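Reading a protein record of the kind used here takes little practice once its layout is understood. The reader may check this reading against the record printed directly beneath this paragraph.
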Amino acid sequence: MDVTFAPTRRSLRPAGTGSRVVDVDIVVVGAGRAGLGAARHLRHAGLAAVGDDGWDEAGPTFVVLDEADQAGGSWRDCWPGLPLAAAVPERNLPGLPLAETDLTRPACDALPTYFARYEDEYALRVLRPVRVDRVAPDGDRLAVRARMVDRSEDEVVWRARGLVNATGSWSRPFWPYHAGQDAFTGRQLHQCDVHDLDDLTDGHVVVVGAGPGVVHLLAGLAQVTTVTWVTREHPPVTDADLTPAVRTAVEHGVLTPRPMFDRIGRHGVWFGPDPVPDGWADGPAHVVARTIVWATGFRPALAHLAPLHLRLGAGDAVVGPEVLADPRVQLVGSCAPRPDAARSRVAVRNLRRHLGL
């Protein structure tokens, strides 16, 4: 994994296997905003990063594992038309404000550049592209089994005293089911699969949901085709969203949604006879569409934690980022039950207190 493992107390090769086993105090899984923030707090607390000179004989250590082959988290994969204005929570990582002032610049360009600068500034030494397959109990430690994405035979088991999980949710788009969905003869995409709006110019587009950045997606679509927005909630357009394209979409009524349809047909969607509430758009009972885009959000990417049998999302089961079923595990970012900007700092504080670091 692009790290030299000397035969020290921290780097072992079990007999009969090709896996390396490395002891480390804390593993951070994921190098998006939350993961990088946690890594910076660990560095600030004096922990040595795997890859530092003498790390294998240093005091407390940490390692950051990231599945992507470059810095930037899920922002590298988002629609190129999504402006930096739509990424307000991402604009400042702890300790190093984003210097970019052009909020119309694509987020998929500006934020990866910023994240890479942040990694360099704090020497976070992210190991990538590394996929974490599973995290399982291993005595008083956690066995974090990871492989190189491009060399699956290259496996390292990180024996950690604690884990900061920052795997986000981008890899788990949520697809709700609606009556008639399987019969639709057109194209169905999740918003995370939309990369080039010119691919959607062959007919009317119905956008379903109020996922992150949906107003910018709608504004972009309105420039290349006709579009209908359908959602259960009517989110407000904030001042930060008011790029020139969004202002134009507001003026043309594109950002006034219709209530949820009753069913999906072979060639479009069907709306019921109920009266339209104030503030919502009206329209024909049947809207013919070539494409349905599901802007219905995401679910936490936590399958690799299944062997730990953690309690997640059940009322008082989670306090801050700490999973009460195992205080060695901290959830941060969009994979946490109640994400907020302070979670990375609180997660590191919790782990240091629990582990006596």
In short: The longest strand covers residues 155-165. The radius of gyration is 23 Å.
